[in-house]
Write a structure and sequence with these properties.
Blueprint (H helix, E strand, L loop, with lengths): L2 H10 L4 H7 L6 E3 L13 H10 L7 E5 L2 E2 L14 H9 L3 E4 L7 H14 L2 E9 L14 E8 L1 E6 L26 E6 L3 E4 L5 E5 L4 E9 L3 H15 L18 H21 L3 H11 L7 H6 L9 E4 L5 E6 L2 E6 L2 E5 L4 H9 L3 E2 L9 H13 L3 E5 L3
């Protein structure tokens, strides 16, 4: 089992990935109770929040402060250029407000590795938002989200309420609107999530939560999945770029009452057939693969230390792919393309066996790479991969 699959299994344990995907994914909420308060101890702590708040110069809206759905104006806790004042934010927490840290996976390496691993397994963009709630407080009224979430209760506990689902699988533009969507009736289920427990909520499931007698810290890992609607929209866009017929204007007079319905139907069938034929032969999966790879960027640690030992890399040096680095290798007529961190790295095609060996392997010595390239070439390739942030040296060798 690779590191990414192991992280996915750890997240759900004792529920198996197969049971989760078969019985719960996109269908219904799932609660995993564990008698293990320290289960998420290596992932996040209040100390991590203190470091981000006190030393990172965090800005609004990366930190938002709310009190029962009412977002407190940023002016109450920020200074110039919307930089958060740590002391003012802490005081608001002490007065009953919830601190919401958005995209904290970009600042905490353990969260970055966690999101990167899930991204690889689930082929989805992943993000980690953090909710730190004082005792006996509620940050948000009942609502639904437009993406699935895994709720990891790190410390403290929260009382969760689940309500009847009114709108299944909403798209990103179909957010809950308290002005239009009526308040829910009584919850259909209530339970307490304690430290070490897990909650999965599919998009569209209405929910709310309130802390108990102690402060609550939880991670909400958002699964920003691609839908079939996304797939077909991208497919139409790509087909239109390649097929002149799909770029033609709609027929003159189509909006007039006298435009025959049979003719409209014929034209739609004709154009749709051209789109479907192209979609079947060249589906837009590579586009979404690139989106996944580009979105989940790791917190790159020890970069300068790695650069400092580049010249010491030899055939005996042990290296490995950075465990949280997501990248995609493709072979083209012009050579190999490595997509990572929102960029493309062009390499000669004859290096493909060495690159695939490096991607698929765990730790290895530089000299163990396939002999599609000679010894000095292997060293040069590994130095390049280290410089690009894809690999790291574990020891120099001799």
């Amino acid at each position: 089992m690779d590191d990414a699959s192991a992280t996915y299994e750890w997240l759900l344990r004792p529920l198996s990935p197969d049971e989760f995907e078969r019985c719960y994914y996109q269908e219904r909420f799932c609660v995993v109770h564990r008698d293990a308060p320290g289960y998420y101890g290596d992932l996040l702590s209040v100390g991590d929040l203190d470091r981000v708040l006190g030393t990172h110069g965090i800005r609004h809206p990366d930190l938002q402060i709310v009190r029962f759905e009412e977002e407190i104006p940023a002016s109450e806790y920020t200074s110039g250029e919307e930089v958060v004042d740590p002391l003012r934010a802490a005081k608001l927490f002490a007065e009953g407000a919830t601190l919401v840290f958005s995209h904290l996976h970009a600042r905490v390496p353990a969260l970055a590795r966690f999101c990167s691993a899930l991204s690889q397994v689930l082929s989805s963009k992943m993000q980690a938002n953090i909710y730190f709630t004082p005792p006996n407080a509620q940050g948000f009224k009942p609502h639904w989200d437009t993406h699935d979430v895994f709720v990891l209760q790190v410390s403290g506990s929260k009382r969760w309420m689940i309500y009847e689902t009114r709108f299944r699988l909403p798209l990103r533009g179909q957010k809950f609107d308290p002005k239009k969507d009526p308040a829910p009736s009584a919850p259909i289920d209530e339970f307490e999530l304690r430290a070490g427990d897990l909650l999965y909520i599919p998009r569209g499931v209405m929910h709310a939560a309130r802390s108990t007698a102690e402060p609550s810290l939880h991670v909400t890992a958002g699964l920003m999945a691609f839908t079939w609607a996304d797939f077909f929209l991208q497919g139409v866009a790509e087909a239109a770029l390649a097929d002149e017929s799909l770029r033609e204007n709609l027929p003159l007079g189509f909006a007039r009452a006298g435009f025959a319905a049979p003719e409209r139907a014929r034209l739609v069938r004709e154009k749709a057939a051209r789109f479907v034929d192209r979609l079947a032969s060249e589906p837009p999966f590579p586009f979404f693969s690139t989106e996944v790879v580009s979105f989940n960027r790791p917190c790159l640690e020890n970069l300068l230390g790695q650069m400092a030992q580049l010249e010491r890399i030899t055939l005996a040096t042990t290296v490995r792919r950075r465990p949280d680095a997501v990248w995609d290798l493709r072979e083209t007529d012009a050579g190999c393309v490595v997509r990572c961190f929102g960029k493309e790295i062009q390499l000669p095609g004859f290096l493909s066996p060495a690159l695939r060996f490096a991607v698929d392997g765990a730790e290895f010595s530089v000299g163990d790479m396939p002999d599609c390239v000679d010894g000095p070439g292997k060293v040069t390739l590994v130095r390049r991969l280290v410089k690009e942030g894809l690999f790291e040296c574990l020891e120099s060798g001799t």
